[in-house]
Amino acid sequence: MNDFEQNQIALKAQSSAWRLRLENLRGLLLSLREYGLRHEWFAPTALTIFLLGTICFSVCIGTYPMPIWKAGNILARLSFPWPLPDDLPWPVKELTVVQVIRFPRVLLAALVGLGLGISGTALQGLMRNPLVGPDLVGVSSGAAMGGVLAVMLNWSPVSVMALAFVGGLLSMGATFTLARIAKSSDGIGLILSGIFVGGFCISAVGMGIFLADDGQLNTIIFWLLGNLNHADRGTVWLVAVPTLLGGSILMLLRWRLNLLSLGNDDAFAIGINVRILRLGIIAVVSLIVAAQVSAAGIIGWVGLVIPHWARMLVGPDHRKLLPVSALLGGLFVLLIDDFTRVVLRANVPIGVLTTLIGTPFICFMFWKKQTKGWIGD
Amino acid sequence: MSAGDFSFSGLGHAYLPEQWIFRNYRGEVSRGQVLSLLGPNGSGKTTLLKILLGALKPAEGTVMVHGQVAFVPQLFQVAFDYSAMDMVLMGRAKKVGLFSQPSKEDEEAALCALEKVGMADMAQRPFHEMSGGQRQLIIFARALVAEADILILDEPTSALDLKNQNTILQWMDRLARKEHLTIIFSTHHPHHAYAVADRALLMLGGSNYEAGPAEAVLTESNLASLYDLPFKHISYEYQSQAIETLVPILRPKSDVCSASGAA
C-alpha cells in the first residue's frame, strides 16, 4: 500500500469519525427536543439556566478577562443599594469594566433579544404568518427615521434615542390609522399599511443619509446597522421597562395568541373580541420594538428567525412557545455580541451578523415551505 | 322558550344599497332539531350564517337566540401545527379569563369532548395530519367543549369523501337527538338535508324563500325551482328499512348534445 492509499484510508476514517460525531450530536439534540416536547418545564428551565450562565460568562470575557468569581463578587456588591466604600477590594479598572462597560452591554443584548424574540412570535401568531417580523408593522423604520432626524439636528445620544422612540410610536400610529381609514384593519391590511408607512420612513432615512456630513453619516450608518456600543444604565432602563412590561402582558395573553392564529371568523366564533385583542397586542409589540430600535438600532431578522427555532423546540402552542422564544432571543443576541467582542474583536454591527445568520435560515425554511408547508416546522 | 331555541324574523341583508341578497326571511328551530339551509351559489347562505352567528349585523330584522352558539367552519388549514387537544381546548375561550390560561378542568373537559366524538386516542396527533372527516370531528368536539346549545355549521360535508360525509351526518344526527343540541347547517346536497334535517329553508333569492318542516319544504318542485334542475323523490328498501331520498337528474351528455345541436 503506497502513501497515497494510506492517506486516502486515513482521510476516510477521519471523515467517518466526524460523521459519527455529527450523528451523535444530532441524536442528542433530537432526544433533547423529544424530552422537551414531553416535559413542558424542561425547555424554559434549561434555557433560563443557560441564559443566566451566559450573562455571567459574558461579563467575564473580553479584552480584559477576569475570573467568574471576581465578576460575580463585583456584581453582587453593586446590586446592594448602599454606596460603595472608599477602600474597594478590587482595582477601579475591574469595577469600571464590569459596572460601566460589560454589564450594561450584556444586559442590553439579552433584553433586546428577549424583546425581539417575544415580539416576533406574537406577531407571527397574530398574523397567522411565519414570515412576519416586528419590522413589518413599520415601527423599526419609524424609529430609524426619528433617530436619523435627531442625528441630523446634532442632538445628544439620549435625544437620538428619545426621538427614535417617538418616531417608532408615531409610525405605528400612522400604520393603524391608515389601516383604519382604508377599512382594512385585519392582518394583511395592517401589514400592507406597515409596508407603506415603512417605505416612507426609509425614504426619509435615505434623504437624511444624502444630506448628512461625514461625521453625522458615520453615526447614522453605525446606528442603523444595529450596535450595542452605547449601552449604559440609561439605555438599559429605556429598553428594560417596555420590554419587561410589554413582555409580561404578552405572556399573560399567550393562550389568546393560539385563538387569534385561527383567523378572524373562527376566532370570533369561539368567542373572543378579535379586533381589540389584535390592536392591543400590536401596540404592545410596537412599544417593545420602538424601545429596542431607539437603544440599539435595527437588529434585523431576530424576530423572524427565533420563533422558528423555538417552534422546533417546543411546538406551536404559544403557551410554551412565547417564553421559549423570549429566552432563545436573549441567548441568541447575547452570544452574537460575545462573538463580535471576543472572537472578531471588532465593532462589527450586530445587525449585520444577525442578518447574515438569519437570511440563510429563512431561505432554507422558504425552500422547505415549498415542499412541506410552514406547518412542518 | 328554552335554551337551544332559535328564531329569526324580517331578516334581510344588502352589501350595496337596495341590492338585497335576501329579505324578510323568517324561520325557527327548536332545541334538539336540525335546520338545513339550501340555496345555489351566491344566494347568501354564508351571509345568513354569519348573521345568525352574530358576526355580521343584518341590514334589517331580528335574530332571537336562546343559549350559547358555537360555529363549525368549513374545512380549514391551521397556520401552525397544533395538536387535536390544543384545537379542542380553544373551544373553552369563553370560559377562560382574558389573562388566564386553561386549567386542568378545561383540559379534562376537552378530553371528555374528544371521547364523545370517539377521538380521545388521537388527542396528541397533529391536526394537519388528520383526514378531512377527522378534522371535522375535532371541530365538533371543540364546539361541544364550549358547552354550546346551538351549533352552526357552514357546509360541513363539502370537502369530504362519501364515507366521511356519512360520518359527519351521523354525528350531526347523534348530537341533535342524544345531546339535544340545536343544529343549523348549510349544504349543497338536498339528500343530506333530507337525511338529517327536521326543518329546511330554501333560499330562492330576494324575498322568495320556502321554510318549514323538511318533508313539506324539500319537494321535487321546490328543489327544481331552487336549482333550475329536475329532482326525483325515490323510495327504496335497504336492510329491511324504508329509505326515502331526493336525487337531482343530472344529464350532462344529453345537455351537451342538445346545446351543440342548437348551435
List the helices and strands and how they pair.
The complex is a heterodimer of chains A (377) and B (263).
Chain A: H1 3-38, H2 42-60, H3 68-78, H4 92-127, H5 139-152, H6 157-181, H7 187-211, H8 214-224, H9 233-252, H10 254-260, H11 264-269, H12 274-296, H13 302-314, H14 318-344, H15 350-371
Chain B: E1 6-16, E2 19-29, E3 34-38, H1 45-53, E4 60-65, E5 69-72, H2 84-89, H3 104-116, H4 132-145, E6 150-154, H5 162-177, E7 182-187, H6 190-196, E8 199-205, E9 208-213, H7 214-217, H8 220-227, E10 231-238, E11 241-248, H9 252-262
Parallel strand pairs in B: 3-7, 3-8, 5-6, 6-7
Antiparallel strand pairs in B: 1-2, 1-4, 8-9, 10-11
Helix pairs in contact in B: 3-4, 4-5
Describe this protein with a few key phrases:
heterodimer; A: 377 residues; mainly alpha; ABC transporter involved in vitamin B12 uptake, BtuC; globular; B: 263 residues; alpha/beta; Rossmann fold; 6-stranded mixed beta sheet; 3-stranded antiparallel beta sheet; 9 helices; disordered C terminus
